[in-house]
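Two entries, shown back to back:
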Amino acid sequence: MSDRKIKINATNRSSAREMFNGRKDYSDYAIKTAKLGSAPTRRLSAPLADYEAIKDFGIQQRSLTGRADLDFYSILPRQEKLKNVVNSAQGINVFCFDFVADAFDRMSLRYEELKRANRVLISDDERAELNSVKAFVGYTSSVESFFAINRNFYTGYVNSLPKNVKNETRNFREFVDRYVDTLLSPFKKVPYFLSDYIKSPANSAMTSGLALEISTAKYSDDKYKVNSFLTSPNFILYNRLAREFGFSIDKQIPWRLVANLETKAMKRRLANRGSIPTEIKDVLYNYYTVVDTNDFLIMMNDLYSAYNLFVKNNSYKDKTSSRQEDENSSRVIMRQPIEIIKLSQIPTHEWITAYIKLKNKFSNINMDTIELNRVITFETDKINIIPLEDIITSINRKFNFTDLDEGSATYLNTKRKLRQSESLTDPLQQIKDFYVASLMNQY
């Protein structure tokens, strides 16, 4: 350890160096020193079992908890499996998976029982953390945030087009060519496909259905984490109860509880819900749906929506005057919104080519040009021979892994597979109905 003074109170107002050092100190020392009784917490050492619930979800496969199945396909919680948490903060509706809600409600009640038995040290400040254990934050939708990001991107793209580019964009195909080129440029960095977004750091763990938070504190306030949680006289009890009821505590956000599917306690909750067997692969199958199959539809939906916004904002394509210098005889050409069925005016091989190029970029695999062209040729040669869904499945298998998966134990050992899933929204369902029925029969 260097002679630099340990500092754990970095905030977003700190300098870049202070923030880096402060966050590093929290990550490197906060949990370890809480166990061993050294700086910065300076507390008496306690049995390591008292801190066993603490997990670092920023390392290896833990970063994909509730985001990917055992084959690394992106997953979304099934909405019908979500339940309202009873022991939530007053006036707040908090949702998570039914078995997670059951476990948390029992943990919260147990905490209250111990409080009445004077096993919990109550602070005079009613707002103090760990005076009680109530849910403040639960499930949030990654689909909503993802589509908001994509909508903001294509809205900004359309609004920023130079006048000459608008005038030169005469139809849907020309718009698609320009838009895809922009997506492939370094300008677009946020994941374009829902499957990549779900596995990315941009997607919160709160979208998994497995997590709850008992505070609304700022994630960046490391000093608060130490003072209000790690050194709280109630923290060891909080940790013990979390372990007893099948939860892990997020090291970086100690007020976040994440259901640990490997514990006996959580398996009992699953069994009580009729989920037998309770192995992780079975839980993932019963409580989640795989979304990679929808990426092709999402691309088409995005291009469809972007073009119609372009038409809405740029209705007049051209104004052509006749040879007579009579303004009244001039002719105005109007752009028209495209209907979903008209997406077939772009040949299937062009859709597939665009999809492969976008997958290559946003999966961070980044094949070289020769290899990428080989994949494009291989997949487009299947058109009119096998169903489009099978072509998309084949493409998805080639681009399933992301840079987040590298180094994990399962990366080299797991056989990849595909589970079919339903479309996510009504517009996507319309497109699915369209392309399954029509796209392969356009010629």
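entry 2 starts here
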Amino acid sequence: MIPGADGKSEPTENDPEQLSRLLELELIQKRAAWKNASARHNKLRTASFVFLFILIVGSLFAFFVLFWRMNEQRANQRPTPTPSVSGP
């Protein structure tokens, strides 16, 4: 017996069919919440991998451009003339 809002106790029915339906409904709701959480987790994981890929590709491109320009500057440098020593 469970006391009601007005203080009177009312008998509760332990209907197994109703309890089974309520449990099934609760499990369905939890499963839906888990799927939503899993979908959010997968989206975040995918975004992280995309960010890392873009970061690595950008870094490789920057190093390529940097070394390419350094090689161009070395090729364009003129050799400095060495002073010739004239003997007495």
